[in-house]
Amino acid sequence: MVKKVTVNTLKKIKENREKFSVLTAYDYSTAKYLDEAGIDVILIGDSLAMVALGYETTHSVGIEEMQIFTKAVAKGAKRAMVVTDMPFMSYTIDISTALKNIGNMVKLGANGVKIEGCNDYILELVKRCTQMGVPVMSHLGFTPQSQNVIGGHLIQGKSLNTTLQILEQAKQLEKAGAFSIVLEMVPEESAKFITENLTIPTISCGAGLYCDAQVMVSDDLLGKFDEFKPKFARKYGDMKSLILDCAKRFNEDVKKGSYPNENEIYKLSDEDAQELEKYIKEQKNVSTHN
Known about the structure:
Elements: H1 7-15, E1 20-24, H2 28-36, E2 41-44, H3 48-51, H4 63-76, E3 81-85, H5 95-107, E4 112-116, H6 120-132, E5 136-141, H7 147-150, H8 160-176, E6 180-184, H9 188-196, E7 202-205, E8 213-216, H10 218-221, H11 239-256, H12 270-289
Parallel strand pairs: 1-2, 1-8, 2-3, 3-4, 4-5, 5-6, 6-7, 7-8
Helix pairs in contact: 2-4, 5-6, 8-9
């Protein structure tokens, strides 16, 4: 039986000064392959708003859509811990609504949820989730759902004061029960300092080498999405070219009649083929006499 990655697994990895990997997935087959590859945490990121649904920002994806993707990914991941991004407005109205939405994600197969930001409300929500038995991955630094307040895709923690502010928020989230913290678009030195002063793991999303884990959007890693490429997104493949090439070749084969070939079709038995041919001839004779 496959041993599932849990919050305790990740805690031990940090204690041993090792690293773990995090990738996004939005469908069953991708989750299955990432799981087989040994990825430790699979995140159903709200980045799917852009890469899977074609929206301009993460603000547009709703809780119902995230539930569909969560259910699909959870079925594909046997070993990896599955974490769902709670989308914009799904957890900020009131605690009761937030807990209901979060609980539904767990019912669909999520092993934890990701929540952005840190304020009194978020701290209370993290605390309540932990009490309810739902692990929370927090998210500091650049928080995409708050980009209109932040003023765009801006690096966070660029000074001593702002680094200390992020660290203080991280410590508050740690105390509230968060099991890990994503640091997005934070200078490497700042992220290293924050990481060294927490007992829970940090996950770098453009926050340098010294966090306890690294996360990437799988569509960036696979070279499938090319409309926007963050500086920290390393391209490991060229799925765009592969998809274009396969689709073009299929299109050509269909139009010149070389697909399908004899090995790709089903045939009637000789007896049934003769019976069908006989029937067609009889119908033609009937038509001629009329």
